[in-house]
Design brief:
- It is built from nine helices and seven strands, in the order αβαβαβαβαβαβαααβ.
- The chain has helices at residues 29-40, 75-86, 98-110, 125-139, 162-189, 211-231, 249-254, 262-276, 286-297; strands at residues 66-70, 90-95, 114-119, 144-147, 193-198, 236-243, 308-311.
- It has a seven-stranded parallel sheet, sandwiched between helices.
- 50% of the residues are buried.
């Protein structure tokens, strides 16, 4: 899966030839401001993304539990796969980029964790059934699902082709439906489970040119609420996380800054966040979002279901 890092993205211009599913973001002001800031020596450290948290939980909340993750080859999904394995889970994860998938699998193994990668596309129902079957065959059941894969395509509504609109909906919304469809029977057989879905802060407060993305992410909130009501009596909890802008390699790539020095990227991202993320005035790092997903997937919040919880640095507190 060409996983997008969920949440709002910086409005830099993206080269539309990057791939057929590139994110089309309007304007170059943020990137330009960051580059100019570096050249002028403007201090932006206060708005830069901090390193991955070093004080993460050393608990073993998921010892011997089986976890499925979609969109696990990069960004939030990758961080979650590593974190679940660190806490003792047996992790099955999927994505469309096999090279990255095998790298994550090896990284987890090198740290003493257990993970298995599956090449699968959430838009294809047979792939999600095969992914679920693989998880059971490898690990014997399913305790936690983190349905995280997603993409975006940003343009005015009247400029979307039907195929473009459908690709966003089929990945973000129907892909989660397919995943849950095959996860639920396993959890029913196991007498319970926990599903966490990655929506977006755009489900609450969005902007122009995000119609397809925002619609899909708001639809996920409704899907989560319905599923929570349907399966709560079977001891299956279903919740959504709503991340804001998160600093990932993909966000950097679609901003057209993949090949610039790290210092330039950090400055550009920090300048953008300073004016677009009220509250903490910075982007999140993937590990921060992943740790939130782990918390919801743990047994610590056993009465929590049907919730849509925002983790966006304060973006939606301002209402837009």
């Amino acid at each position: 899966m060409n996983e997008k890092q969920h949440g709002e993205l910086p409005p830099e211009r993206v080269n539309p030839t990057l791939s057929r599913r590139s994110l089309l973001i309007g304007g170059t002001s943020a990137a330009a401001a960051g580059v100019i800031g570096v050249a002028a020596g403007i201090g932006v450290a206060g708005h830069e993304v901090p390193p991955a948290p070093s004080g993460v939980s050393s608990q073993r909340r998921f010892t011997d539990k089986v976890v499925m993750i979609t969109g696990g080859t990069s960004g939030i999904g990758r961080a979650a796969a590593i974190a679940f394995a660190r806490e003792g889970a047996k992790v099955a994860f999927c994505g469309r980029r096999a090279m990255l998938g095998h790298q994550v699998e090896q990284e987890i193994g090198d740290k003493g964790g257990m993970a298995r990668y599956v090449l699968a596309d959430v838009r294809i129902e047979a792939d999600m059934q095969r992914f679920a079957d693989f998880t059971v065959a490898q690990f014997g059941g399913l305790d936690v699902a983190f349905n995280n894969a997603g993409i975006t395509l940003e343009k005015p509504l009247h400029e979307y082709s039907s195929a473009e609109w459908d690709d966003v909906q089929h990945t973000n919304l129907r892909g989660v439906f397919y995943a849950i469809k095959y996860q639920i029977p396993i959890m029913l057989a196991g007498k319970g489970g926990n599903i966490v879905v990655t929506s977006s802060s755009n489900a609450i407060a969005t902007q122009g040119k995000r119609g397809a993305y925002a619609a899909s992410k708001r639809g996920l909130v409704a899907l989560v609420q319905a599923a929570a009501l349907e399966y709560g009596p079977h001891n299956i909890r279903v919740n959504a996380i709503l991340p804001g802008t998160t600093d990932t390699a993909l966000v950097r790539r679609v901003a057209g800054m993949e090949k610039v020095p790290d210092a330039v990227w950090k400055a550009a991202a920090a300048e953008w966040a300073a004016s677009h993320v009220p509250g903490l005035s910075r982007m999140a790092n993937p590990e921060e979002i992943a740790e939130f997903a782990l918390a919801l997937a743990s047994d610590e919040y056993s009465f929590l279901t049907g919730a849509a919880l925002v983790i966006d640095g304060g973006k939606t507190a301002q209402g837009g």
